[in-house]
Design goal:
This protein is of the alpha+beta class. It has a single domain (about 5-135), classed as Alpha-Beta Plaits (2-Layer Sandwich), CATH 3.30.70.100. It has five helices and five strands, in the order βαββαααββα.
Length: about 150
């Protein structure tokens, strides 16, 4: 089995996703998902809720918290996608749509391809656990953020 990199991130919406505030973001999101899915480093994207909007609802009791969970061949593949033109524009403009969350609001962690045979709900629970571990323990080989892990893992 090949090792793959999972990424999970959260954002708190300033309004309901159906609000006109998100008109441009909804179009961006569809385009970014399409770009990711043809990227040679892309492996998988959580679609458990089958939301027409294409985002994860990690905490049903907090409907303004949205997320994204995906898997990539490796760290470099994820970085190339995350920090290229289209996705970078979303990152630069995120305060228009999202409130500030306490850090960390994203986590990276390794798994292997066999993990993708698990039910989506189980993968989402694992991602939430990894984010919790990262919040409590900081960067470890089991859960880390962008940047400083490269030399450690």
């Amino acid at each position: 089995m090949s090792r793959i990199l999972f990424q999970f991130n959260l954002a708190k919406m300033r309004a309901s996703f159906d609000d006109p505030l998100f008109d441009d973001f909804r179009a961006w999101l569809r385009a970014l998902h399409a770009l990711a899915e043809v990227d040679p480093g892309f492996v998988w994207r959580y679609q458990g809720e089958k939301s027409e909007h294409g985002y994860v609802v990690p905490y049903p009791s907090a409907p303004f918290i949205m997320g994204n969970l995906s898997a990539w061949k490796d760290y470099d593949s994820l970085c190339k996608y995350t920090f290229r033109d289209g996705h970078l524009e979303i990152l630069k403009g995120k305060r228009k749509w999202f409130e500030r969350l306490p850090s960390p609001y994203s986590v990276l962690y390794y798994g292997d391809e066999s993990d993708l045979e698990r039910p989506d709900a189980e993968l989402l629970e694992r991602a939430k656990t990894k984010l919790g571990q990262y919040s409590v323990y900081g960067e470890t080989p089991a859960a880390f953020g962008f940047g400083t892990h490269r030399g450690k893992l």
